[in-house]
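During the reporting period the student researcher (J.K.) took over the structure-prediction task from the postdoctoral fellow and processed the backlog of single-chain submissions. One of the processed entries is reproduced below for the supervisory committee.
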Amino acid sequence: MEEASCKEIDRVDCSPFTDEVERAPPPKRFTMPSITPFKGDSDLESHLRHFKSAMILYKADDSLMCKVFAMTLRGAAQDWFHTLPFASIGNFKEFALIFTKEYPSYKTVRKHVDHLFNLHKKPDESLRDYLRRFKAEKANIIGCNDQVAFSAFKKGLPTEHKLYRELAITPSQTLAKVFVMAEPYALWDNDCIAAKKASQQADHPIRQASQKSNKFEPKARDKRISRPQEGGSETGTFTEFTIPIHQILAQVKDKPWVRRPPPLRGDPSRRDTNKYCAFHGEHGHYTNNCNAWKRHLEELVRDCHCTKFVAKNAIQQIKDRDAAAKEPSQKVIRINTILPDSQESGLTTKECKRKIAQATYIS
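J.K. obtained the following structure tokens:
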């Protein structure tokens, strides 16, 4: 608290006037004219005109004009004056220009301390971003009480947040100590958000490129479909699982029946380093879009591995597929036969046709 008070005193001592203006003595027998103070709630240009009229006898004395005009400022206007950069005003013309141009914007952003109670940590906002936003809003409030700011900061946190519980246990703390206490929680929060984003990125499949118009020959198109790229998405029917296939790999990668794939073909320097495949152990595509892992996973399911990850509606489809594979296919065998002439065999033409029909097809 004492450190904050010292900083406030130092800030006030740093005058916006240059040394030349500061050291200039007032004229002898100078009497301060009667000028209505400007508190920030009236017309600033009207106040400036009234001041110039009252000081018309001393308008050539820039240093005196600057100092007397600063003395007419009260309340919020005086707070604004002490926010100006050190030694930034060298004459009254500069002072008047800064006053008319910058003070209206300062008055717009200036808020009451109660405004801090409107700030809340958003669900998708990190603790560090909430801290940064809270500090920025507090900076716009002149003379903000630390205890009030502390209460507003705690109120803006979700009640289930660990920092909220810590602040509730130890409520009597300065705001500076609260910000120091929040730092490790902000680091932990950032790690959680980064892990969540990485998981969502891995779960999200790559959008397939739009199909080109029929300018390729059917033969070339069939060849392209029959040999998909290793890293791209493969069109086809795969078993439906209850969890993403990259999570399945994480659980079964050390099993003896999981076969590692050969290295990816192509130039490694041309691959997308933002995408990583845990099955290949290389960059270039996501695990969820790895054709090699998809095909190997289908083989494992047929060998009764990884069945606990299969969706319920897909179990019956697998059974029907396996049953169809076990049934022998019916084939029609054509046998060419040579029969004797009907006159030599003693058969009539009708009987001969019937014999031919029976001997020609055997199912």
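The committee noted the following: The beta strands are 276-277, 282-283, 333-334, 361-362.
J.K. will present the remaining backlog at the next meeting.
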